[in-house]
């Protein structure tokens, strides 16, 4: 029978890599806490409507990337392609932003998009996500951008570029949209097929096209800043001033529009110089219309999502530190078969005292056990003499010294040296 493999675009994160992911996630967890964000856990599948309404019918995600199926009860279900819509749904459903309250929430986990797999692009990938809900003012945007940049600073990422833009609001975007339609209509022959299609449905997306010819046309497109309403213009100016006050450098790009429909005002992306084509390590922005699009009241929001797979890739390529690979401190070794039970009991007593410890459970010989102990701080060795005397030979594996310690004192002895 042929062996079953993981589906295309998915992969196994094995121990050689997973400890590095744990480091990234624990660094994220600390950073989020330091910024006052609380962790949440949400469903991995939601009603399809949440995304078709919340992300937008004309986005790439909804049009061609979602994993959608009908469940046994006949409901249309989608594996979440992104986190924000689910966070907003949860906030509405659980009244987290009732009576003008705000909520600062973060999460991490798998997302699913049916894309063409390549380096840094998978069909199941992972995001670290932070959302600040209920605050309309620009200070919240600055907090969110600062949070993502502080996370990357703590992780040691270098060569990052912050790109920001404003995509306007429901008042000024229609005016800009019309200007774009007029401009791109006069350059139809230079646009790719996808962009010709976008022209009637979502012309802003043409600005984001990676096709060279479309990019060329987009460079000459009208600037959104000429169309922004006073409120959006002022909001953007305050975000910029706030970033500058915190000492961040950034560039403004009128071509940054992001893939999601619900974005308003601030849009931003953090790019890495070390990722090639898939160069975005995080993206985010403000989404004041998401809540009403999915049936909630008016709850403004701003947030970001960072690609965990891509961050790990860049950290690897830039030689960033992942801290020390975690392992147990003590390995308990049986010199003979008769000592194996005593050794397992000793191992357990160390663990109960809060000391990480391991012993062989596969019946391996003394030499193999000592080899396995190699990466530990101490080996606790038990043979016939130790059993008879109620002692344990404690070997310090850093300097090779060995002492005999009463069995009941081993945890205290080692605990004092770790
Ligand atoms: P891209 O332009 O690379 O397709 P995007 O605009 O679709 O990115 P977002 O929806 O903003 O991405 O998601 C935020 C982050 O999640 C991205 O910056 C990226 O780091 C990561 N990401 C998005 N799609 C994938 C994927 N298929 N595989 C791995 N990481 C991804
Ligand atoms: Mg994408």
Description of the structure:
This protein is an alpha+beta fold. It folds into 2 domains: 249 residues, BirA Bifunctional Protein, domain 2 (2-Layer Sandwich); 84 residues, Rossmann fold (3-Layer(aba) Sandwich), CATH 3.40.50.800. Helix content is 37%, strand content 21%. The protein is built from 15 helices and 16 strands. The chain has an 8-stranded mixed β-sheet, sandwiched between helices. A 5-stranded mixed β-sheet has the order 13-12-14-15-16, with helices on both faces. It has a 3-stranded antiparallel β-sheet with strand order 2-4-3. A hairpin with a 5-residue loop joins strand 3 and strand 4. The chain starts with 14 loop residues before the first helix and ends with a helix. The relative contact order is 0.12. The mean pLDDT is 95.
How many beta-strand segments?
16
Taking the sheet with the most strands, its summary is: 8 strands, mixed
Which class best fits the helix and strand makeup?
alpha+beta
What's the CATH architecture of the largest domain? 2-Layer Sandwich
**Portion of residues in helices?**
25-40%
Q: What is the approximate shape? A: elongated
According to CATH, the homologous superfamily of the largest domain is Bira Bifunctional Protein, Domain 2
User: How many structural domains can be distinguished in the coordinates?
Assistant: 2
| Neighbour order of strands in the largest sheet | 1-5-6-11-10-9-7-8
Question: Low-confidence runs (pLDDT<50, min 5 residues)?
Answer: none
Number of helices: 15
The CATH class assignment of the largest domain is Alpha Beta
Question: Remind me, CATH topology of the largest domain?
Answer: BirA Bifunctional Protein, domain 2
């Amino acid at each position: 029978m042929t062996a079953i493999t993981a589906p295309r675009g998915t992969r196994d994160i094995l121990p050689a890599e997973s400890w590095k992911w744990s480091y990234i996630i624990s660094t994220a967890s600390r950073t989020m806490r330091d910024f006052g964000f609380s962790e949440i856990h949400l469903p991995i599948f939601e009603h399809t409507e949440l995304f078709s309404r919340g992300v937008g019918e004309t986005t790439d995600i909804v049009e061609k990337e979602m994993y959608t199926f009908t469940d046994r009860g006949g409901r249309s279900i989608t594996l979440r392609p992104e986190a924000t819509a689910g966070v907003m749904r949860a906030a509405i459903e659980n009244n987290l932003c009732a009576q003008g309250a705000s909520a600062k929430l973060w999460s991490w986990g798998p997302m699913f998009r049916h894309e063409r797999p390549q380096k840094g692009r998978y069909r199941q990938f992972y995001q670290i996500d932070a959302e600040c809900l209920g605050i309309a003012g620009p200070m919240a945007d600055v907090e969110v951008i600062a949070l993502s940049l502080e996370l990357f600073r703590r992780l040691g990422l270098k060569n990052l570029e912050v790109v920001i833009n404003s995509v306007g609001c429901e008042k000024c975007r229609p005016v800009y949209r019309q200007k774009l339609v007029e401009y791109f209509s006069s350059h139809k022959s230079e646009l790719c097929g996808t962009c010709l299609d976008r022209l009637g449905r979502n012309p802003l997306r043409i600005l984001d096209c990676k096709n060279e010819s479309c990019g060329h046309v987009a460079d000459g497109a009208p600037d959104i800043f000429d169309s922004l309403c006073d409120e959006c213009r002022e909001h953007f100016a305050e975000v910029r001033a706030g970033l500058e006050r915190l000492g961040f450098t950034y560039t403004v790009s009128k071509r940054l529009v992001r893939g999601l429909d619900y974005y308003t005002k601030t849009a931003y992306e953090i790019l890495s110089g070390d990722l090639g084509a898939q160069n975005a390590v995080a993206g985010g922005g403000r989404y004041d219309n998401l809540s009403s699009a999915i049936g909630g009241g008016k709850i403004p929001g701003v947030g970001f999502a960072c690609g965990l797979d891509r961050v790990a890739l860049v950290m690897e390529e830039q030689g960033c530190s992942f801290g020390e690979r975690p392992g147990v401190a003590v390995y308990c070794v049986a010199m003979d078969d008769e000592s194996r039970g005593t050794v397992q009991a000793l191992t357990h007593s160390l663990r109960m005292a809060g000391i990480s410890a391991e012993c062989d459970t596969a019946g391996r010989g003394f030499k193999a056990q000592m080899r396995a102990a190699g990466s530990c701080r101490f080996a606790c060795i038990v043979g016939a003499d130790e059993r008879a005397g109620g002692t344990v030979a404690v070997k310090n594996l850093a300097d090779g010294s060995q002492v005999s310690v009463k069995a009941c004192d081993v945890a205290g002895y080692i605990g004092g040296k770790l």
